[in-house]
Fold this protein.
Amino acid sequence: MAIVNKENSHKILANKDYPILYVYNINNKLTVSTDILDVDKILFLLPNFDATSLGDASFKKDYNLKYAYYGGAMANGIASSDMVIALGKCGCMGSYGSGGVRLSVIAEEIDKIKSNLTNNEPYMINMLCNRNVEAEMELAKLLVEKDVPAVEASAYITPSEPLVYYRVNGIYKDANGTIVTPHKVIAKVSREEVLTKFAMPPQDEILSSLVNKGLITLQEAELAKLIPMADDITVEADSGGHTDGRPLVSMLPALIALKDKIMAQYNYQKEVRIGAAGGIGTGLSALAAFDMGAAYVVTGSVNQACVEAGTSDYVKQCLEETAMADVAMAPCADMFEDGAKVEVIRKRTMYAQNASKLYELYKKYPSFEAIPEADRTKVEKRILKKSFNEVWEMTKEYFMTINPNQITKAESNPKLKMALVFRWYLGNSSRWAVNGDADRKMDMQIWCGQAMGAFNLWVKGTPLEKRENRCVADVATLIMNSAAIEYMKNLISKLGV
């Protein structure tokens, strides 16, 4: 911004190399224009700010982005390959939701994404923390084999060996002495201790283990000690799915300050950047994140109602009608025994209540047989809709293909057996939602944050009010362009215009 007078205005206008907005006093009325109406009446020159100006320039350059924006992963392929392609084509980036998807299908979806995104158009694949380390390593090896340029690491408490393998494999130093990392990592975090681990280099013991297994070279391990575990860290506030429910306005500035403190301890060639996710469903909320120092913004819930989302139309209808108050916290399948929770909608579904009841019974009783008969009957008839033993047989069949040790342990541990059966309900509830199973409408687990309600209120009365008009690229550019407009409105307002 520049304040000009008659003497210097011609000089500034002659040498400008950026778009300008002109603020005039015409007939005692302040007017904003992109055109030169009357040089003598110019009061201010303002930068003609647009959506491409928002966010960190190096972030956009590194990922070949027009906008400092990406669509976060939603498991079970809800963040579909079609969504990733659409975002990549519009100058944003998408993260494919690989969690809960078979490895063979992930391979096919990667091939589809790569064949549709050309000219270095960006994309990511999600790596969701997996208690089955062998399965997670298979995914990491696939991503290396397919030359996937970046992953979004979600739900990690600490970087795992498979994630470190992906990060470090292929690292080298070029002729200029610059460390080149072919595999970028964007880590989602919501806690200080987790951010610290991703802002630091990979752990020595993990690097040594990978070297001993022949998965990385000694040279790669040594270079890995000179880089942070993540290129970028997304601070995830109150969001759909896994969340700690923390407010972005408190968490983002605090974690940016913590990152700066950690950066001062290391002599990295590049600084870790911090982005913001959770609650971003309008242009103003995106602008607030940028104004607090976010290098980029991430959306999730608002994309789930888009036409490209890999979920049922029934779920999209539910999301289209969701208000900010229509969400609740409920136990999750993958960390059920730990009491971890996800944010879901509570309208049109009883999932939150049912899952909470199952967790309450799990915590209170040592086995299913120890539960009072009335509660057992309710669980079997109204929640599982099958007998406990029927579900156990299906659970055994499932785990025998991926982790037979779990069955062995559960056969001698009634409480673990109960947990696995209850997890059958929690795990299938999200698939019932994706598939749109009509007889399981009241059991659907639909991940959603309050951003969805804010977005619905924001677009009410516009074409985007209807789900059939919601294309993920339109949602992204609307949020970013609106953020830029709000920035200019705020700036002009501060000048008294």
User: Anything to note?
Assistant: The first helix runs from residue 6 to 15. DSSP finds 19 helices and 17 strands in the chain.
